[in-house]
């Protein structure tokens, strides 16, 4: 009973929408428009980088992908600082909440929860990366064991047929034993045999070194892919939690005057957030089914929030203490997650890379798009 009173109407603090602009029938129509518009915007935004990657438009060795990521990083950074942190601060410092309990006005909970979320994201980032690295190393070990098993079977087969024989050498001199496969037709001259062995050793050493360099390159690719997997999953968590909140806020509104500009702003908001998330998902190299599930989960969250808000609009008071506390805490957590992801995993990882330092043209392009994305997303705060 107490929980219902905390989240529903409150005699001391009612919904502050203007009664002159309150029209439930018009608001209901606008909510269906909002769900359709936001759904299309979300799918469009997240589909562009995913389809572009598959069709080769966003190639890893070109300039389009780093430029798109820089713009997306600016969008995410502005979303955390300008939108989420601002909404969290307003919710946790609302006059209705101050009259409910003075504790919320005596401590900066919005910044505190954002800090906790950033530190927790660091922990999740670290643990998740370690988990995927151990999992990848286990797969490589199994694959290596299978290859060794095949080689051993082939060797036994050749020995059984008398095609080759194995001669072991002692481990004196250079340290470590050696093993040579010697052909049965060993009737060539000593000079020719020595020359051939020397040539073969050179080729073996060259191939061994080349194999190591290729292994290091593959390890770098594996580590980069693991980082993108963790980044995309944590980033989606931060974006989705905020998307549900803004969907609920729109769904419980009964004011067409408030909803009309909000629908346009949220559609743009959803498009650019989807573009940023889609870029991270495309770099993670998920399977098509996994990438599709993540894209649908993002695109459907805000319309689902609008639908839930519409169903509970008659009994739900967004200015009740429970609603304000829930909104403030979730927005604070989302702000901390996205600020961390934008600064550490997107901006620092790309702008401090060797590739960025070696190309002045790419530096100018990415910095311009970074500020453009942050500025454009910040300007949406005038309406949403």
TrEMBL record:
One Pfam short name: Zip
Main location: membrane
Transmembrane segments: 28-52, 64-85, 107-127, 291-313, 333-352, 364-383
Keyword Transport recorded: yes
Composition-biased stretches (Basic residues): 187-196
Membrane topology category: Multi-pass membrane protein
Subcellular locations according to the entry: Membrane
Annotated signal sequence range: none
Keywords linked to the UniProt accession: Ion transport, Membrane, Transmembrane, Transmembrane helix, Transport
Protein name: TPR repeat-containing protein zip4
Native species: Pisum sativum
Lineage of producing organism: Eukaryota, Viridiplantae, Streptophyta, Embryophyta, Tracheophyta
């Amino acid at each position: 009973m107490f929980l219902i009173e905390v989240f529903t109407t409150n005699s001391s603090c009612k919904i502050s929408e203007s009664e002159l602009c309150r029209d439930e029938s018009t608001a209901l129509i606008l909510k269906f428009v909002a769900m359709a518009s936001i759904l299309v915007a979300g799918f469009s935004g997240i589909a562009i980088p995913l389809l572009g990657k598959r069709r080769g438009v966003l190639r890893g060795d070109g300039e389009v992908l780093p430029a798109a990521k820089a713009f997306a990083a600016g969008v995410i950074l502005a979303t955390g600082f300008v939108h989420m942190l601002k909404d969290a601060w307003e919710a946790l410092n609302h006059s209705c909440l101050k009259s409910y309990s003075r504790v919320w006005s005596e401590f900066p909970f919005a910044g505190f929860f954002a800090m906790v979320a950033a530190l927790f994201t660091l922990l999740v980032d670290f643990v998740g990366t370690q988990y995927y690295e151990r999992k990848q190393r286990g797969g490589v070990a199994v694959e290596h064991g299978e290859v060794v098993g095949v080689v051993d079977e082939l060797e036994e087969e050749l020995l059984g047929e008398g095609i080759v024989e194995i001669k072991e050498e002692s481990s004196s001199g250079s340290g470590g034993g050696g093993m040579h496969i010697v052909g049965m037709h060993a009737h060539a001259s000593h000079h020719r045999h020595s020359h051939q062995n020397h040539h073969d050793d050179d080729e073996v050493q060259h191939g061994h070194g080349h194999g190591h360099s290729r292994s290091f390159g593959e390890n770098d690719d594996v580590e980069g892919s693991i980082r993108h997997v963790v980044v995309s999953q944590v980033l989606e968590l931060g974006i989705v939690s905020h998307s549900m909140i803004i969907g609920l806020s729109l769904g419980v509104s009964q004011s067409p005057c408030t909803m009309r500009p909000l629908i346009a702003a949220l559609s743009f908001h959803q498009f650019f957030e989807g573009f940023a998330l889609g870029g991270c998902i495309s770099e993670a190299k998920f399977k098509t089914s996994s990438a599709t599930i993540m894209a649908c989960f993002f695109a459907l969250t805000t319309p689902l929030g609008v639908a839930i808000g519409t169903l509970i609009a008659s009994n739900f008071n967004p200015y009740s203490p429970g609603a304000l506390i829930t909104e403030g805490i979730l927005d604070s957590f989302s702000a901390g997650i996205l600020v961390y992801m934008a600064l550490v995993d997107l901006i620092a990882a790309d702008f401090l890379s060797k590739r960025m330092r070696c190309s002045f043209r790419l530096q100018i392009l990415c910095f311009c798009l970074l500020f453009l994305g942050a500025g454009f997303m910040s300007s949406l705060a005038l309406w949403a």
